[in-house]
Amino acid sequence: MPPACDFVVFGGTGDLALRKLLPALYLRDLEGQLPDTTRVIGVSHSPLDDENYRSDVRRALLEHVPTGSFDEAAVDRLLARLHHVRLDFTDPADWHLLHGLLKRHDPGDANPVRVFYLAVSQSLFGTICQRLDELGVVDDHARVVMEKPIGRDLESAREVNDAVGAVFDETQIFRIDHYLGKESVQNLLVTRFANTFLEPVWNAHWIDHVQITVAESLGVGDRGGYYDTAGAMRDMVQNHLLQLLCLVAMEPPTVASREDVRDEKLKVLKALKPMNPDDVDRATVRGVYAQGLVDGAPVPSYADDVPASDGRTESYVALKAEVNNWRWKGVPFYLRTGKRMDRRVSEIVVVFKKPPHAMFPHSEGAHEPNRLHIHLQPDEGMRMHMTAKEPGPGGIRLRPVSLDLSYAATFDQRLPEAYERLLMNVIRGNPTLFMRRDEVEAAWTWVEPILHRWAASPDRPKKYAAGTTGPTAAATLLERDGRAWQESDQ
């Protein structure tokens, strides 16, 4: 841990900063993990002085920090670290205020780590980095954090990466995907590589297929302007879902740290079978939510939420991906994500093949394949579905049972939020859980042909009622292969 740190949040009054970043820093400070001389500097257009900013942050902490973790002394300690700088990012004359604050340090705080978190539109990334370079505040101890998605296609991703890379070395750039900071995602690596009984069957010989689901019950909300230019493919599939796929499919790294993990994820992305137009038509489904009921309450359609939409933006994607390598040849990976679904859930389901020989041909009860459910949210944990004999005399009656691991119940402690882990890794300079430039561009290389085909097609996203599991075509996508989506309560 460095002895001193300046954590600068561009967009410091925005939703991400107040709802996620500052509560995460508070919770780490509560645990005594922030360097004693840490300063947190919010940068925005808002005409706030330090005291007004601290009042806004206190309200945000009260709203977003778990009740049992709200400690007045710890809140006061974090607020004392807070500063606000009003800044027009595009006006060079305004930057002297930030420069003066960054240069004002305790004489004992030599070479503080400076973290620049870009919680703003990516169109500003290059401008902000250029200004920081001109101020002379980018040194070997500086880091920059970029929120996803990086670009909206391969060309724009390269432009963003070039602009930031012109100032910061690749080792100083942290492209954040908060899903990679979740406890259950981290535990996936441990489950695979620290338990000898799983790795021998983690391949095409024993696994039938893999499903990855990220479903939200909420609509686009106040993000409609952004979302209508992105859609579910850019917002979720290109980053979150492909990163989860990589962790499921990657080969064992030499050591689960730093570049080893990222090298193996890149190999998976490069092994994804490219889709031609016919593949896109056959193996992808787009949807958009219509009016419906969520938790018993009526909710509007996407068209109501985003009146300016031209009706071509997808709020739902389901697709079939294939990893063309020795381990996974012939194993489909089914990915789906959507808004206004029947529930909020993120999970990975690994479905194993049926036993090669039916030893109990005259048994009663269900014959189901083994499944490993990895729950990412809302309740992190794992569940292994197995088949057991139901107790009783006479013949054999088979019954599905499950072995459950709930992190909250097993470890009896608060699970850190993903941003808590990721922000501390940035401060420490550990890039393991962040995307490298070549990963981002490899993901865009695979996604881009799908986007091009959709743009050229006269078809529009298929409507599905809010509060359901998505369009019927998504179910058909699996039914053609003799499979079905595994819902979280199955």
Protein architecture, described:
The protein is α/β, with parallel strands linked by helices. It folds into 2 domains: 5-147, Rossmann fold (3-Layer(aba) Sandwich); 180-479, Dihydrodipicolinate Reductase, domain 2, CATH 3.30.360. It contains 15 helices and 18 strands. It has a 10-stranded mixed β-sheet, sandwiched between helices. A 6-stranded parallel β-sheet has the order 3-2-1-4-5-6, sandwiched between helices. It has a two-stranded antiparallel sheet with strand order 9-10. Helix 1 (15-30) packs across helix 2 (50-64), helix 8 (224-249) packs across helix 9 and helix 9 runs parallel beside helix 14. The longest helix has 26 residues, at 224-249. The protein is globular, with a radius of gyration of 24 Å. The model has no long low-confidence stretch (mean pLDDT 91).
Main traits of this protein?
10-stranded mixed β-sheet, Glucose-6-phosphate 1-dehydrogenase, 6-stranded parallel β-sheet, NADP, Dihydrodipicolinate Reductase, domain 2, NAD(P)-bd_dom_sf, single chain, EC 1.1.1.49, Rossmann fold, globular, 2 domains, 490 residues, alpha/beta
